[in-house]
Specification:
Low-confidence stretches: none
Number of strands: 8
Helix content: 25-40%
Radius of gyration: 15 Å
Bound molecules: ligand X6L, magnesium ion
Strand content: 15-25%
CATH superfamily: 7,8-Dihydro-6-hydroxymethylpterin-pyrophosphokinase HPPK
Structural class: alpha+beta
Number of domains: 1
Mean pLDDT: 96
Shape: globular
Length: 180
Protein backbone atom coordinates (compact mmCIF):
# COMPACT_ATOMS: atom_id res chain seq x y z
CA UNK A 1 0.00 0.00 0.00
CA UNK A 2 1.29 3.47 -0.83
CA UNK A 3 2.56 5.86 1.81
CA UNK A 4 0.42 8.96 1.58
CA UNK A 5 1.06 12.33 3.20
CA UNK A 6 -1.73 14.77 4.03
CA UNK A 7 -1.22 18.42 4.96
CA UNK A 8 -3.60 19.69 7.64
CA UNK A 9 -4.27 23.33 8.52
CA UNK A 10 -6.68 25.33 10.68
CA UNK A 11 -6.97 29.00 11.59
CA UNK A 12 -10.51 29.32 12.98
CA UNK A 13 -12.15 28.38 16.29
CA UNK A 14 -10.35 25.70 18.34
CA UNK A 15 -7.51 25.18 15.88
CA UNK A 16 -5.70 22.31 17.59
CA UNK A 17 -8.91 20.47 18.34
CA UNK A 18 -9.86 20.80 14.67
CA UNK A 19 -6.59 19.13 13.62
CA UNK A 20 -7.00 16.33 16.17
CA UNK A 21 -10.64 15.78 15.18
CA UNK A 22 -9.59 15.50 11.53
CA UNK A 23 -7.03 12.81 12.44
CA UNK A 24 -9.72 10.95 14.40
CA UNK A 25 -12.08 11.06 11.41
CA UNK A 26 -9.30 9.95 9.02
CA UNK A 27 -8.65 6.94 11.23
CA UNK A 28 -12.32 5.94 10.98
CA UNK A 29 -12.27 5.73 7.17
CA UNK A 30 -12.37 2.17 5.84
CA UNK A 31 -9.17 1.65 3.87
CA UNK A 32 -7.15 4.24 5.79
CA UNK A 33 -4.61 3.51 8.53
CA UNK A 34 -3.01 6.50 10.24
CA UNK A 35 0.70 5.69 10.59
CA UNK A 36 2.42 8.80 11.92
CA UNK A 37 2.03 12.51 12.50
CA UNK A 38 4.32 15.51 12.76
CA UNK A 39 4.41 18.10 15.51
CA UNK A 40 1.91 20.91 15.27
CA UNK A 41 3.37 24.24 14.11
CA UNK A 42 1.99 27.75 14.32
CA UNK A 43 2.55 29.62 11.08
CA UNK A 44 1.86 33.06 9.66
CA UNK A 45 -0.72 33.04 6.86
CA UNK A 46 0.59 32.84 3.30
CA UNK A 47 -1.25 33.87 0.16
CA UNK A 48 -4.01 35.88 1.84
CA UNK A 49 -2.34 37.71 4.68
CA UNK A 50 -5.19 39.40 6.58
CA UNK A 51 -6.34 36.38 8.58
CA UNK A 52 -5.43 34.64 11.86
CA UNK A 53 -2.29 32.51 12.23
CA UNK A 54 -2.57 28.86 11.25
CA UNK A 55 -1.79 25.64 13.01
CA UNK A 56 -0.30 23.19 10.49
CA UNK A 57 0.89 19.60 10.55
CA UNK A 58 1.40 16.61 8.25
CA UNK A 59 -0.09 13.15 8.75
CA UNK A 60 1.20 9.94 7.17
CA UNK A 61 -1.36 7.30 6.24
CA UNK A 62 -1.51 4.00 4.41
CA UNK A 63 -4.51 3.59 2.18
CA UNK A 64 -6.16 1.24 -0.25
CA UNK A 65 -8.26 4.14 -1.60
CA UNK A 66 -7.31 5.58 -4.97
CA UNK A 67 -6.39 9.32 -4.94
CA UNK A 68 -9.78 10.71 -6.01
CA UNK A 69 -11.67 8.58 -3.46
CA UNK A 70 -9.28 9.75 -0.77
CA UNK A 71 -9.88 13.35 -1.89
CA UNK A 72 -13.65 12.79 -1.57
CA UNK A 73 -13.20 11.46 1.97
CA UNK A 74 -10.96 14.43 2.88
CA UNK A 75 -13.52 16.91 1.58
CA UNK A 76 -16.22 15.12 3.59
CA UNK A 77 -14.12 15.66 6.72
CA UNK A 78 -13.72 19.35 5.83
CA UNK A 79 -17.53 19.67 5.60
CA UNK A 80 -18.08 17.72 8.83
CA UNK A 81 -15.71 20.02 10.70
CA UNK A 82 -17.60 23.08 9.52
CA UNK A 83 -15.44 24.40 6.71
CA UNK A 84 -17.39 27.13 4.93
CA UNK A 85 -16.69 28.28 1.39
CA UNK A 86 -15.06 31.73 1.52
CA UNK A 87 -12.56 33.82 -0.43
CA UNK A 88 -9.66 32.04 -2.13
CA UNK A 89 -6.92 31.26 0.41
CA UNK A 90 -9.24 32.56 3.16
CA UNK A 91 -9.71 31.36 6.76
CA UNK A 92 -10.93 27.85 7.46
CA UNK A 93 -11.74 25.56 10.40
CA UNK A 94 -9.90 22.76 8.64
CA UNK A 95 -8.03 22.09 5.40
CA UNK A 96 -6.84 18.66 4.30
CA UNK A 97 -4.50 18.58 1.30
CA UNK A 98 -3.23 15.48 -0.46
CA UNK A 99 0.51 16.18 -0.70
CA UNK A 100 2.13 12.92 -1.81
CA UNK A 101 0.67 9.58 -2.83
CA UNK A 102 3.50 7.08 -2.90
CA UNK A 103 5.63 7.73 -5.95
CA UNK A 104 2.59 8.51 -8.06
CA UNK A 105 2.08 11.46 -10.34
CA UNK A 106 -1.45 12.48 -11.16
CA UNK A 107 -2.91 15.47 -12.96
CA UNK A 108 -6.62 16.00 -13.21
CA UNK A 109 -9.32 18.66 -12.88
CA UNK A 110 -9.73 18.23 -9.12
CA UNK A 111 -6.29 17.10 -8.05
CA UNK A 112 -2.57 17.26 -8.82
CA UNK A 113 -0.09 14.94 -7.07
CA UNK A 114 2.52 15.73 -5.88
CA UNK A 115 0.89 18.92 -4.61
CA UNK A 116 2.16 21.57 -7.07
CA UNK A 117 3.28 24.15 -4.47
CA UNK A 118 4.52 21.67 -1.87
CA UNK A 119 8.13 22.81 -1.94
CA UNK A 120 7.35 26.53 -1.49
CA UNK A 121 5.79 26.17 1.94
CA UNK A 122 7.73 25.83 5.18
CA UNK A 123 4.54 24.61 6.91
CA UNK A 124 4.60 21.54 4.63
CA UNK A 125 8.35 20.97 4.07
CA UNK A 126 9.38 21.07 7.74
CA UNK A 127 6.75 18.55 8.95
CA UNK A 128 7.59 16.25 6.00
CA UNK A 129 11.23 16.33 7.03
CA UNK A 130 10.22 15.54 10.61
CA UNK A 131 8.42 12.45 9.25
CA UNK A 132 11.66 11.24 7.67
CA UNK A 133 11.35 12.40 4.07
CA UNK A 134 14.93 13.33 3.26
CA UNK A 135 14.15 14.16 -0.36
CA UNK A 136 11.12 15.47 -2.18
CA UNK A 137 10.01 14.83 -5.77
CA UNK A 138 11.51 17.05 -8.45
CA UNK A 139 13.94 18.82 -6.18
CA UNK A 140 17.71 19.13 -6.36
CA UNK A 141 17.99 19.81 -2.64
CA UNK A 142 17.68 17.91 0.63
CA UNK A 143 14.40 18.48 2.47
CA UNK A 144 16.26 19.83 5.50
CA UNK A 145 18.18 22.34 3.40
CA UNK A 146 14.98 23.51 1.73
CA UNK A 147 13.23 23.79 5.11
CA UNK A 148 16.05 25.93 6.46
CA UNK A 149 15.90 28.17 3.41
CA UNK A 150 12.12 28.62 3.62
CA UNK A 151 12.29 29.33 7.36
CA UNK A 152 14.28 32.48 6.68
CA UNK A 153 11.22 34.13 5.15
CA UNK A 154 8.28 32.16 6.60
CA UNK A 155 7.57 32.22 10.31
CA UNK A 156 6.99 28.75 11.79
CA UNK A 157 6.90 28.00 15.55
CA UNK A 158 6.69 24.67 17.30
CA UNK A 159 3.22 24.66 18.95
CA UNK A 160 2.71 21.05 20.16
CA UNK A 161 5.53 18.50 19.95
CA UNK A 162 4.87 15.27 18.11
CA UNK A 163 5.07 13.13 21.27
CA UNK A 164 2.29 15.21 22.82
CA UNK A 165 0.18 15.10 19.65
CA UNK A 166 0.37 11.29 19.76
CA UNK A 167 -0.85 11.28 23.36
CA UNK A 168 -3.71 13.62 22.49
CA UNK A 169 -4.65 11.13 19.70
CA UNK A 170 -4.13 8.04 21.89
CA UNK A 171 -7.12 6.25 20.36
CA UNK A 172 -5.54 6.64 16.90
CA UNK A 173 -1.93 5.80 17.70
CA UNK A 174 -2.79 3.35 20.52
CA UNK A 175 0.62 3.32 22.18
CA UNK A 176 2.02 4.51 25.46
CA UNK A 177 2.08 8.25 26.01
CA UNK A 178 5.27 8.21 28.04
CA UNK A 179 7.77 7.40 25.29
CA UNK A 180 8.45 9.03 21.92
C1 LIG B 1 3.03 34.44 -3.17
C2 LIG B 1 1.83 34.05 -3.73
C3 LIG B 1 3.46 33.79 -2.04
C4 LIG B 1 1.09 33.03 -3.15
C5 LIG B 1 2.72 32.78 -1.47
C6 LIG B 1 1.26 30.45 -0.49
C7 LIG B 1 -0.59 31.19 -1.72
C8 LIG B 1 0.48 29.50 0.11
C9 LIG B 1 -1.38 30.24 -1.12
C10 LIG B 1 1.54 32.40 -2.03
C11 LIG B 1 0.73 31.34 -1.41
C12 LIG B 1 -0.86 29.40 -0.21
C13 LIG B 1 -2.37 28.06 4.61
C14 LIG B 1 -1.81 29.34 4.49
C15 LIG B 1 -3.22 29.01 2.91
C16 LIG B 1 -1.92 27.24 5.67
C17 LIG B 1 -0.47 29.02 6.32
C18 LIG B 1 -1.69 28.37 0.47
C19 LIG B 1 -3.17 28.32 0.25
N1 LIG B 1 -3.23 27.86 3.61
N2 LIG B 1 -0.87 29.82 5.33
N3 LIG B 1 -2.36 29.92 3.40
N4 LIG B 1 -0.97 27.75 6.49
N5 LIG B 1 0.47 29.46 7.15
O1 LIG B 1 -2.35 26.09 5.85
O2 LIG B 1 -1.21 27.54 1.21
S1 LIG B 1 -4.09 29.29 1.45
MG1 LIG C 1 -4.02 24.06 1.83
MG1 LIG D 1 -7.05 22.51 0.49
Amino acid sequence: MPRVYLGLGSNLEDRRNNLLSAIGLLAQIEGVVVKDCSSIYETDPLGYLDQPAFLNMVVEIETSLPPLDLLDRCQEIERKLGRKPTVRWGPRTIDLDLLLYGEEKYEGERLTIPHPRLTERAFVVIPLQELGLDSLPGLGMATRELGEKLQRSQRIYLHTPKSEVKCLCWAVFSGSCTGK
